[in-house]
């Protein structure tokens, strides 16, 4: 049956030849998924705000001394928490007030950033690698490997996240940042494994994967050159949003008395102290809570913006 | 005119005899889409008309504006980003673009119905076909659920779906492609509309099934004396069923002609190119002709005649002046009824 | 459909055994000795400790302890006894469980009504002011940690306005549970709203929506029947898995409002190293999780015929 689409295919073939490059050159260069997303992101106010916030948070985490000259650990009991904030003198040692031991709330805020950021980034890195590998193997190979890995994921997923982290933390005498990271990653990888498995299964059936197989590409090449780059989008989105969640979880564990503990300077530690003194001095609880919320918000906004940019259906 | 109000309770749509003009007339229709890359002019001044019992085939590549025109007629354009800056769509002499939304809704499905290309995605996946067919009667005629189901079975029989009674509770994904398209046709026919717009109704189907579905559509059209706008890119489908053809390119009609005349003597280089690119058994062994170049980007339609970069006949005038759609005549000036062409060199093309 | 249910039920068995074993191993790797803890700082003579350990079966190898534990649960519905005061765990749970269930149910109702409601408004007004306002609201809710949200509500409504009591009394009146339920359900509410909105925005562009309009259906029918039936499928799935999560997440909320429910019991068991209580509690949560996810899978099949006949 005569069909114009067939003609159109023939036309495309003709254009692909270098013989007549003029019309092809005029044609808009097709943007890739990520290229298109980037164009979208640059105009997204949520993305811009989130990026600036995260940049500053990372800067504070790496170079806290740039932002305050006060010490987060040396307290002067004369200035203890009844010394009210002097909000006028922004950036000074006492502008956000002092805590029960006369330490600068502002300095503790600045120095506490590092712990939260480390927990967030490290947990996300671990769960993305562990969960990503598990999900990729389960999704790509299917069959008994999928059955085994999926049940294993289900088993870890069955235990409530916070509860599992509490039990793990309880079994450590000294709760350093890395112990908290381990406790959160212990059950956290399941989410990433599920996301990755779903993404790989979707990509696996794409024509370009069949084409690569037909051309004789090996398993490793198909996985890393064809499947992984295309399955990464949902994983990156979930990882960014989860990063905020892990920071929040660390603080929640501190609140429950099971997270980081005193000599470590962290928002969670200050929040759990602040809770005890809520009726006397609200600012000890207030500022770390605000910082924490802003940080979580920044990562969630970043993740959401990337998700929207990558998913043309939502535009 | 008060067709709409009168027929609110009258099931038969074939009234409104007081109107004498064409059933549907599109006048100077423009549609544009506001995208983040700029304004895409999808339809740039389209005129066509259909009478009762007549089949108009609208032919064009993807992006030619043929489907957008149809969606504008149905009132199912996404607005925004779509916008109709000017034009009229007259149904029985009444401009639908000026009607209240509620009045337009009453025309949709009851007076003008549409058949979509991909029946699988166009039917609701979570509702049974019986429900989706019966919905037409429940909403437009106020039938009970039970009566509507009876009507749905009748409709499925009408479009020759085997074991209609048993399958009325099935879901779209349980039918084959051809059967699903029959369900789409049944849905469009449910209220015996005056006009059916079929947007590439057979493109998604196997070649053997294509003919069956087209035959069914043509048969039902005759039975009900409906107007039919058949949107397609398939020249083979057109030849069998259409009365007249409108060829679209870059949002404009470039040629209009009664169907056989167009095949015999195209009056536009684009139409000519399309016809020459059909593989023919008697030219076996020869290289197949292809129109060079790509369809234009609607964000940057070439100046002058939109087809000029791909046209073998293009001259300086084609790059500066947009050719008007003018009547085509014989060499001696005798009328060729129903024929028009939008080419500066139509004479050379048809007679040359 | 029958085979589908059977397969899901079979899959549940290894997950149930695996999860309980995992929590069993985790709990028994906790340092400290609950039996020695019973006697406080004075301590007891080793013979007494050994006898108590023997009576409780704590001197058996771990795998045997697990085996005994599971057979007791499955055959006799016996979750063991609390080491500290010798009460059967079923009895302890019987007190705490209804409280948490009530809290979770209220939170669930709250997230269901307001989450879906906000999501529908945002979805129908996509890109407009209402949508953006709801987006910002949900982002804030998601960003503020639960305990901070709890304290904000406690500060404002209990301490400043005096509308509610800061702590829930021992009677656990429904009126006292409203504020805790809002805190507990807040995060899920935000997720439900986002999910509803996304799902609606996606389905609004579906081809069948265009068909529904072309059929001349009134707008409320296009939205109410065609759009909703499809958009609610992922939302229902999320709501189902969330029931278990709400019960697990009650740990924090119960601490904030001093509610004596499962959450408090869990926190107490962890600090007191009450292994058997903890395993019992988690086992129940796991059972709830497994049963709800099975129900959700079945509901999913009811809502989406494509799954049903696959």
TrEMBL record, chain A:
Positions of transmembrane segments: 46-67, 117-141, 161-187, 227-247, 253-272, 284-303
Q: Does the keyword Transmembrane helix apply?
A: yes
Q: Which InterPro entries does this chain map to?
A: BP-dependent_transpt_permease, MetI-like, MetI-like_sf, OppC_N
Q: Domain ABC transmembrane type-1: where? A: 113-303
Q: Which UniProt keywords apply?
A: Cell membrane, Membrane, Transmembrane, Transmembrane helix, Transport
Write down a Pfam family by its short name: OppC_N
**Where does the UniProt entry say this protein principally localizes?**
membrane
Q: Which domain of life is it from?
A: Bacteria
CDD domains membership = TM_PBP2 (cd06261)
- Give the subcellular location: Cell membrane
Keyword Transmembrane listed? The answer is yes
Write down the membrane topology: Multi-pass membrane protein
- Membership in a protein family: Belongs to the binding-protein-dependent transport system permease family.
Protein's name in the database: ABC transporter permease
Lineage of origin: Bacteria, Bacillati, Actinomycetota, Actinomycetes, Kitasatosporales
TrEMBL record, chain B:
Membrane-spanning segments? none
Topology in the lipid bilayer: Peripheral membrane protein
Residue span of region Disordered: 1-20
Superkingdom of origin: Bacteria
Q: Where is the ABC transporter domain?
A: 24-275
Where it mainly occurs, coarsely classed, is membrane
Which UniProt keyword terms apply here?
ATP-binding, Cell membrane, Membrane, Nucleotide-binding, Transport
Q: Name one GO molecular function term.
A: ATP binding
Q: Where is the composition biased (Polar residues)?
A: 1-10
Q: Name one Pfam family in it.
A: ABC_tran
Q: Where in the cell is it found?
A: Cell membrane
Q: Which family does it belong to?
A: Belongs to the ABC transporter superfamily.
Q: List, alphabetically, the NCBIfam families matched.
A: oligo_HPY (TIGR01727)
Protein name (Swiss-Prot/TrEMBL) = ABC transporter ATP-binding protein
Q: What is the organism field in this record?
A: Streptomyces flavochromogenes
Highest classification ranks of the organism: Bacteria, Bacillati, Actinomycetota, Actinomycetes, Kitasatosporales
UniProtKB/TrEMBL annotation, chain C:
Q: Which InterPro entries match?
A: BPD_transp_1_N, MetI-like, MetI-like_sf
A Pfam cross-reference name = BPD_transp_1
Query: Do you know which PROSITE patterns this protein is assigned to?
Result: ABC_TM1 (PS50928)
Transmembrane regions:
12-30, 101-122, 134-157, 177-195, 278-303
Q: Where in the cell is it found?
A: Cell membrane
**Transmembrane as UniProt keyword:** yes
Give the membrane topology: Multi-pass membrane protein
Question: What residue stretches are annotated with the ABC transmembrane type-1 domain?
Answer: 97-300
- What keywords does the record list, in alphabetical order? Cell membrane, Membrane, Transmembrane, Transmembrane helix, Transport
According to its UniProt record, which protein family does this protein belong to? Belongs to the binding-protein-dependent transport system permease family.
Q: What is this protein called?
A: ABC transporter permease
Q: From which lineage does this chain's organism come?
A: Bacteria, Bacillati, Actinomycetota, Actinomycetes, Kitasatosporales
């Amino acid at each position: 049956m005569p069909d114009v689409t067939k003609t159109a295919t023939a036309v495309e073939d003709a254009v692909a030849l270098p013989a007549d490059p003029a019309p092809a050159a005029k044609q808009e260069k097709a943007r890739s998924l990520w290229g298109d997303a980037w164009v979208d992101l640059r105009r997204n106010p949520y993305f811009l705000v989130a990026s600036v916030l995260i940049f500053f948070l990372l800067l504070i985490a790496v170079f806290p001394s740039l932002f305050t000259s006060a010490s987060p650990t040396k307290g002067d009991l004369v200035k203890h928490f009844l010394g009210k904030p002097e909000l006028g003198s922004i950036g000074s040692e006492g502008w956000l007030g002092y805590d029960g031991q006369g330490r600068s709330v502002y300095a503790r805020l600045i120095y506490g950033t590092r712990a939260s950021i480390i927990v967030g980034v490290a947990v996300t890195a671990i769960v993305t690698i562990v969960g990503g590998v598990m999900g990729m193997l389960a999704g790509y190979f299917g069959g008994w490997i999928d059955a085994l890995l999926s049940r294993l994921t289900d088993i870890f997923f069955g235990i409530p996240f916070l509860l599992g982290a509490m039990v793990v933390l309880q079994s450590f005498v000294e709760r350093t940042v890395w112990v908290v990271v381990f406790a959160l990653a212990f059950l956290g990888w399941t989410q990433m494994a599920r996301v990755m498995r779903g993404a790989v299964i979707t990509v696996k059936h794409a024509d370009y994967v069949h084409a690569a197989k037909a051309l004789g590409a090996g398993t490793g090449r198909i996985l890393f050159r064809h499947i992984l780059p295309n399955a990464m989008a949902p994983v990156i989105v979930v990882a960014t949003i989860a990063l905020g969640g892990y920071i929040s979880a660390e603080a929640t564990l501190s609140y429950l008395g099971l997270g980081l503990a005193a000599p470590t300077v962290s928002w969670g530690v200050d929040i759990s102290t602040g809770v005890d003194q809520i009726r006397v001095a609200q600012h000890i609880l207030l500022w770390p809570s605000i910082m924490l919320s802003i940080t979580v918000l920044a990562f969630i906004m970043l993740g959401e913006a990337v998700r929207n940019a990558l998913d043309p259906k939502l535009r | 005119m008060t067709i709409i109000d009168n027929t609110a309770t009258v099931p038969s749509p074939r009234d409104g005899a007081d109107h004498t003009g064409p059933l549907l007339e599109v006048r100077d229709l423009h549609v544009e889409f506001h995208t983040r890359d700029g304004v895409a002019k999808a339809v740039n001044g389209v005129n066509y008309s259909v009478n009762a019992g007549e089949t108009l085939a609208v032919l064009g590549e993807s992006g030619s504006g043929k489907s957008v025109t149809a969606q504008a007629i149905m009132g199912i354009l996404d607005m925004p980003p779509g916008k109709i800056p000017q034009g009229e769509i007259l149904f029985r002499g009444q401009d639908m673009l000026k009607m209240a939304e509620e009045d337009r809704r009453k025309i949709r499905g009851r007076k003008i119905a549409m058949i979509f290309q991909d029946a699988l995605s166009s039917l609701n996946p979570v509702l049974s076909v019986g429900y989706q067919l019966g919905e037409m009667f429940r909403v437009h005629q106020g039938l009970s659920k039970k009566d509507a189901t009876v009507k749905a079975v009748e409709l499925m029989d009408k479009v020759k779906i085997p074991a209609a009674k048993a399958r009325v509770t099935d879901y779209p994904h349980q039918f084959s492609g051809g059967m699903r398209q029959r369900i789409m046709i049944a849905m469009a026919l449910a209220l015996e509309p005056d006009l059916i717009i079929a947007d590439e109704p057979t493109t998604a189907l196997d070649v053997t099934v294509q003919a069956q579905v087209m035959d069914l559509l043509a048969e039902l059209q005759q039975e009900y004396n409906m107007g039919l706008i058949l949107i397609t890119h398939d020249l083979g489908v057109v030849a069998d069923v259409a009365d007249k053809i409108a060829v679209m390119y870059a949002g404009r009609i470039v040629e209009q002609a009664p169907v056989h005349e167009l095949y015999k003597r195209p009056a536009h280089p684009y139409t000519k190119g399309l016809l020459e690119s059909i593989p023919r058994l008697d030219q076996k062994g020869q290289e197949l002709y292809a129109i060079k170049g790509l369809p234009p980007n609607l964000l940057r339609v070439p100046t002058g005649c939109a087809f000029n970069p791909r046209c073998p006949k293009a001259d300086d005038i084609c790059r500066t002046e947009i050719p008007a759609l003018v009547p085509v005549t014989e060499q001696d000036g005798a009328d060729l009824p129903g024929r028009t062409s939008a080419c500066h060199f139509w004479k050379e093309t048809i007679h040359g | 459909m029958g085979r589908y249910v059977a397969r899901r039920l079979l899959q549940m068995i290894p997950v149930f055994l695996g999860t309980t074993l995992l929590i069993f191993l985790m709990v028994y790797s906790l340092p400290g000795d609950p039996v020695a803890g019973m006697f406080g700082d004075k301590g007891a003579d080793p013979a007494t400790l050994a006898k108590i350990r023997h009576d409780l079966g704590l001197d058996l190898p771990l795998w045997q302890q697990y085996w005994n534990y599971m057979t007791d649960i499955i055959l006799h519905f016996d979750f063991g006894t609390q080491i500290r005061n010798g009460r059967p765990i079923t009895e302890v749970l019987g007190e705490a469980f209804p409280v948490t269930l009530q809290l979770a149910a209220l939170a669930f109702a709250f997230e269901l009504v307001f989450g879906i409601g906000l999501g529908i408004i945002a979805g129908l007004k996509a890109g407009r002011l209402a949508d953006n306002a709801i987006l910002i609201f949900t982002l804030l809710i998601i960003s503020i940690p639960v305990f901070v949200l709890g304290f904000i509500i406690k500060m404002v409504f209990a301490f400043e306005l005096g509308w509610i009591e800061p702590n829930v009394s021992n009677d656990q009146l429904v009126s006292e549970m409203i504020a805790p339920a809002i805190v507990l359900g807040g995060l899920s509410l935000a997720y439900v709203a986002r999910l509803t909105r996304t799902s609606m925005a996606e389905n609004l562009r579906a081809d069948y929506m265009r068909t529904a309009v072309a059929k001349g259906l009134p707008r409320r029918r296009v939205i109410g029947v065609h759009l909703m039936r499809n958009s609610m499928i992922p939302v229902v799935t999320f709501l189902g898995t969330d029931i278990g999560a709400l019960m697990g997440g009650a740990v924090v909320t119960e601490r904030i409002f001093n509610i004596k429910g499962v959450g408090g019991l869990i926190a107490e068991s962890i600090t007191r190293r009450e292994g058997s209580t903890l395993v019992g509690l988690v086992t129940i949560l796991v059972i709830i999780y497994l049963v709800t996810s099975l129900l959700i899978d079945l509901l999913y099949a009811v809502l989406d015929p494509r799954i049903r006949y696959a």
